[in-house]
């Protein structure tokens, strides 16, 4: 029987247990994207709370159009690298590994200190409305279509940021290919109506993700952990489905593996959700069937189901989001048999900043 408290290896790296903190945006960096002391305390809390792996919030990768939110952290300047170093050191001192999530917002663009003009796969804005948790923007701006040079800038930004992250001491890289951000936009037939090498067929739509993985791998060397987070749905359109179904998803997973990814992180509202156009598989089960990759799964993992999920996906890391927000010491609580709290969304209102969370905790005495 698999035990979520046992060590697990992703290639050369050993995690003290199977639990990862899911990446969660908190828009709490300095205005120039530098991670600060508040963020260091925040991440240290989860490391002390027992998470074997911390994944940072989505972090922007270039000074063109990658930033999506005000006070989002970056990893493109010396001060960004220095800020992250402190966070990495504190996570390590508390016994956790820590990966950075590299993210290009693309059309899912609410604020950017370098430009007012989003760039995307095509001139198509996201469905729905911008996320109030992350800013005051009321409507999406329509992105301009990325040309080949813009795409080159994206790829170089990911590669350079990955090298910066390695220099800051991170244990690995998670590329954000999920939830409606840029790489996911290229994969999506809603966002991508290009008629060049980056649009149309699944192979073409996956080309940007593949090229980013390859460039990141090249930047950090062979033995350094590199993976990609993948979903079908987006934050404002959780029901989106790939027209190519489970078979198409399998092809994407194989393509990123062949480009140099050594893990894939699937995310859905529920690990078990069967949401392909046909069939009864989940994202996680399709990815688990692909050989030669480590796996991380996410969606609805909590105190009642973690053991079953760990058994179903032997060797996989289990990434926990909302239950971790409610219980930064989720893993320690499980170990001690203590009660696990439900997330009170008031904690993230009116904005999902760490300052608002701390004010809520003080008020609640938690
Ligand atoms: C406040 C908040 C911020 C999030 N920010 C990110 C992010 O930066 N990158 C990402 O890939 N997912 C992000 N997510 C999604 C979570 O990583 C996770 O996939 C989602 O909460 C579902 O997992 P859960 O059921 O364990 O909560 C965020 C979720 C929340 C609640």
Structure explained in plain terms:
- α3 runs parallel beside α6 and α6 packs parallel to α7.
- The protein has a single domain, classed as Aldolase class I (TIM Barrel), CATH 3.20.20.
- The strands form three sheets. The chain has an eight-stranded parallel barrel, surrounded by six helices.
- 34% of the residues lie in helices and 16% in strands.
- The protein is of the alpha/beta class and 366 residues long.
- The site of flavin mononucleotide has 22 residues, from β4, β8 and α10.
Based on the model shown, name its key terms.
TIM Barrel; 34% helix; alpha/beta; globular; two-stranded antiparallel ribbon; binds flavin mononucleotide; 12 helices; eight-stranded parallel β-barrel; 366 residues
Unreliable residue runs: none
The helix count comes to 12
* Span of the ends, CA to CA: 35 Å
Q: Count every beta strand, where a strand is a DSSP E run of 2 or more residues.
A: 12
Number of discrete domains: 1
Helix content: 25-40%
Q: CATH topology, what is it called? A: TIM Barrel
Could you tell me the strand content as a percent range? 15-25%
* CATH-derived architecture: Alpha-Beta Barrel
Shape: globular
């Amino acid at each position: 029987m698999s035990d979520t408290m046992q060590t697990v290896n992703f290639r050369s790296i050993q995690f003290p247990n199977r639990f990862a903190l899911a990446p969660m945006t908190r828009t709490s960096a300095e205005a120039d994207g530098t991670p600060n002391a508040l963020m260091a305390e925040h991440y240290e809390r989860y490391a002390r709370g027992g998470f074997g792996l911390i994944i940072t919030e989505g972090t922007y990768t270039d000074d063109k159009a990658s930033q999506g939110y005000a006070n989002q952290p970056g990893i493109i300047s010396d001060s960004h690298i220095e800020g992250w170093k402190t966070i990495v050191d504190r996570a390590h001192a508390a016994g956790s590994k820590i990966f950075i999530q590299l993210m290009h917002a693309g059309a899912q663009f609410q604020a950017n200190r370098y430009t007012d003009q989003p760039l995307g796969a095509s001139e198509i804005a996201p469905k729905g409305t911008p996320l109030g948790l992350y800013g005051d923007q009321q409507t999406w701006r329509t992105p301009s279509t990325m040309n080949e040079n813009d795409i080159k800038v994206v790829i170089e930004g990911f590669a350079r940021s990955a090298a910066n992250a390695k220099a800051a001491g991170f244990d690995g890289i998670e590329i954000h290919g999920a939830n409606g951000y840029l790489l996911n936009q290229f994969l999506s037939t809603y966002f991508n109506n290009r008629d060049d090498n980056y649009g149309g067929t699944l192979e073409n739509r996956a080309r940007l993700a593949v090229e980013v993985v390859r460039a990141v791998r090249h930047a950090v060397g062979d033995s350094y952990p590199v993976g990609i987070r993948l979903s079908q749905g987006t934050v404002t359109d959780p029901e989106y489905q790939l027209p190519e179904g489970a078979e198409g998803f399998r092809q994407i997973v194989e393509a990123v593996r062949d480009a140099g990814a050594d893990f894939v992180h699937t995310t859905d509202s529920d690990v078990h959700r069967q949401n392909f156009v046909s069939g009864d598989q989940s994202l996680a089960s399709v990815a688990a069937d692909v050989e030669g990759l480590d796996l991380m799964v996410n969606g609805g993992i909590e105190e009642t189901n973690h053991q079953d999920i760990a058994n179903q996906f032997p060797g996989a890391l289990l990434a926990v989001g909302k239950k971790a927000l409610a219980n930064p010491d989720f893993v320690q609580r499980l170990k001690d048999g203590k009660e696990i709290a439900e997330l009170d969304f008031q904690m993230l209102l009116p904005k999902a900043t760490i300052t608002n969370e701390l004010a809520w905790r003080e008020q609640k005495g938690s």
